[in-house]
Design a protein that fits this description.
Strand content: 15-25%
Radius of gyration: 21 Å
Shape: elongated
Helix content: 25-40%
CATH topology: Rossmann fold
Number of strands: 5
Number of helices: 5
Mean pLDDT: 83
CATH architecture: 3-Layer(aba) Sandwich
Low-confidence stretches: none
Strand order of the largest sheet: 3-2-1-4-5
Length: about 130
């Protein structure tokens, strides 16, 4: 084997180590995805637009009305997220170390309280408008 042939082959093999796996194979590994959970699954959150977001994985949801939690779990499974966790209340969801992002879809008078509690727990907060009442 000549030196040039060896260097060409070595360079070609090295390229796979430089290119991220998601470029070569498409999917992001679950360990490299942010996890998020919804608080509230009423008129705002039940829209399918709130469920499928690439780069994050929906892991759970909660609502104060149990039939909405059941509807949310069914909608998540229908959208291809599989089985996710239904939390008993928003405090349990916020305190879950497996959740990175808290998406708040509750009535506006809850936004401020839930956003502050989630931020204090070290979560990133995605809150529907208005952020809170003045």
């Amino acid at each position: 084997m000549k030196r040039r042939e060896f260097l060409k082959g070595a360079a070609a093999l090295g390229a796979f180590n430089i290119v991220p796996a998601k470029v070569l194979w498409g999917a992001t590994a679950p360990s490299n995805q942010l996890t998020r959970a919804l608080i509230g699954f009423g008129e705002i959150a039940h829209s399918a637009n709130h469920l499928p977001f690439k780069g994050s994985r929906l892991v759970g949801l909660t609502d104060c009305y149990a039939p909405r939690v059941a509807a949310g779990l069914a909608a998540a499974e229908k959208c291809g997220w599989g089985k996710i966790k239904g939390y008993k209340n928003f405090i349990e969801l916020i305190n879950d170390p497996g959740v990175d992002i808290v998406h708040i879809c509750t009535p506006p008078h809850w936004h401020g309280v839930q956003s502050v509690m989630a931020a204090k727990a070290g979560k990133d907060v995605w809150c529907e408008k208005p952020m809170t009442r003045t």
